[in-house]
Amino acid sequence: MKMTDIATPAYVVDETLIERNLRILKEVIDETGCHILLAQKAFSMYSLYPLIGEYLHGTTASGLYEAKLGYEEMGKENHIFSPAYKDSDFAEIVSICDHIVFNSFSQLARFGEQVVAAGKSIGLRINPEHSTQVGHEIYDPCAKGCRFGITAQHFDREALANVSGLHFHTLCEQDSDDLWTTILAVEERFGDVLYDMEWLNFGGGHHITKPGYNLALLKKCITYMKQKYNLRIYLEPGEAIAYEAGYLVTTVLDTTYNDGDIAILDTSASCHMPDVLEMPYRPPLQNSGEAGEKAHTYRLGGPTCLAGDVIGNYSFDAPLKPGDRLVFEDMAIYSMVKNNTFNGMALPDLVIQDRDGNCHLQKRFGYEDFKGRLS
């Protein structure tokens, strides 16, 4: 079927656009010798893991379930970082993960011997204390008081006997100029330690596949650290893999008026695109404009009872009416992994659009998915 034939709401992931992004990442791999991993926290549609695995070295996880998914469905390098691990999870984590990154020396002391006994690689997350975020402290791992990473003041150079690598993750949707200044901060605080390491992980948040991203500087960053300290370099982007490669297709259910035209959709900001409320974020919408740009402006909202379940104000060439379809873009990342069933909302269908433009239903969620969550 074609996109015009699918039931709504539905997330549609375009295989061609995923592969476009993967080719860009493969260019970085081939020219620098780095290892790039899929950060599953942003995109974990494992139907596409065989394709992603053709280009990337493996996956990275934030907990046991993501680690199991990467191990089962991609079966390549499998890395994990968590601010703190549970005793009940750790034996399984060690059995399926290659790199285990600790957030503190106390976690290293607690679990390190198990990792050594299993012959796996130990890493420590460092905090370079170099913020590059402006106005988004919720996404700033170097914000004052942040729980992520060990600062230079508390870094114990006498406790590194079994540590093979360091990990930092400081970026969020940023270009490589911010990576370069972060690297300089890492060198200033931890450069002496790097000479004794086998690898360094640059983390995620790299907007590598966004048009205009400075690929040349990224390659310079990788090559510089690789050659100076004789390190294997890892990157673990999530968004870059599925950037602008997916859609959320929705239908207008009704229109109303209150101090302006309102359209109620069969998709919800709160349930199906939570970053709209959390970040906040205004998703691009096909064939629309900013409020007032086109002849007819509407506030688009969802069908839940939350007054703030509002996607945003958009304008259109013609009035909206029940049955009209709207297609939100850049919906493959984070939306699918963060969605929820608040108010009994059904989760959108999962659809893959193949290279020929044909859509294939991967998963349909129903009442039992909602009912089974809480009892």
Structure description:
The protein is of the alpha/beta class and 375 residues long. It has two domains: 128 residues, Lyase, Ornithine Decarboxylase, Chain A, domain 1 (Beta Barrel); 210 residues, Alpha-Beta Barrel (TIM Barrel). The protein is 30% helix and 22% strand. It has twelve helices and 16 strands. The strands form two sheets. Strands 1, 10, 11, 12, 13, 14, 15 and 16 form an eight-stranded mixed beta sheet that branches. It has an eight-stranded parallel barrel with strand order 2-3-4-5-6-7-8-9, surrounded by five helices. β15 and β16 form a beta hairpin. The chain starts with 9 loop residues before the first strand and ends with a helix. This is Carboxynorspermidine decarboxylase. GO terms for molecular function: lyase activity. It comes from Kurthia populi. Keywords: Decarboxylase, Lyase, Pyridoxal phosphate, Spermidine biosynthesis. Its cofactor is pyridoxal 5'-phosphate.
CATH homologous superfamily caption of the largest domain: Alanine racemase
**How many structural units, i.e. domains?**
2
Q: What is the share of helical residues?
A: 25-40%
Q: Report the radius of gyration as a whole number of Å.
A: 22 Å
For the sheet with most strands, the description reads: 8 strands, mixed
**Residue share in β-strands:** 15-25%
Tell me the CATH topology of the largest domain. Answer: TIM Barrel
Domain Orn/DAP/Arg decarboxylase 2 C-terminal: 30-331
Cofactor: pyridoxal 5'-phosphate
Pfam families: Orn_DAP_Arg_deC
Keywords: Decarboxylase, Lyase, Pyridoxal phosphate, Spermidine biosynthesis
